[in-house]
Amino acid sequence: MTCSSFRLDGILQFELHLSGLDTGEVSVPRHINELLTAGLVYMNNSSGYASPPRIVPKTLPGDYRMTVDTMSVNAITDPYILPMPHLEVTLGLLDVSKVYFKLDWFRGYWQLPLHVDSRELFTIMTHRGMVMPTRVLVGGTDSVGYCQNVVEEIFQPLLYHGLLTWLDNIVGYATTIDELLDTLEKILAACAEYGLKLHPDKCRFFLTSAKWCGKVVGAAGLSH
Questions:
Q1: 139 Cβ partners below 8 Å, 6+ apart?
Q2: 145-176 residue pLDDT tens
Q3: Can you tell me the distance from the alpha carbon of 105 to that of 91, in angstroms, rounded to the nearest whole number?
Q4: Cα(217)–Cα(207) distance, rounded to whole angstroms?
Q5: 137 contacts 143 by C-beta, under 8 angstroms
Q6: Residues 184 and 75 sit within 8 Å (Cβ to Cβ)
Q7: Which stretches make up the Reverse transcriptase domain (predicted)?
Q8: Model's pTM, two decimal places?
């Protein structure tokens, strides 16, 4: 798995406006401390770039997620051309399938390394200092394409032959349980080889229907 790097089109100092911190006054320091402890960010108060964090509510009441507003760095990023799967075509591969499993990454993009040359560009400004990420941030110009490129590298032999991936959302499909288990074993072996961690609470096995990319797939066909 290679590190993601971002190509710049010109140099621009960012004008920073902190917002959205009132709701997360407690959440931001806690989240940053967790990232520091895990080595996913480190302090860099001398960075020439910075983007503000934003706090958004999660499903459970009182639970929040910290996101980063990367609009400033995106404005000067020269994007890579990275293809994404054509959903109508890939979903057609599920027409004869009968059994499924669903897998999801643990902490998503935080497993994707960010090239050392690009880290300062994505510095996060909080009200308690500036931190530089070592992992790809959601919202970066090339983040989505890079994530898809990584999953296709990891699972290339299985793609479209019992496995579909859209970013960190994975669905396995087969006509029999034995075929499904064979695919699952190969996927877990690939995860172990690349060090990719899955979220146990979001994985589902031996399904007769599965929701993937907004569609419900099953033996009866596709539905919303």
A1: 67, 68, 69, 70, 74
A2: 999 999 999 999 999 999 999 999 999 999 99
A3: 21
A4: 10
A5: yes
A6: no
A7: 37-217
A8: 0.79
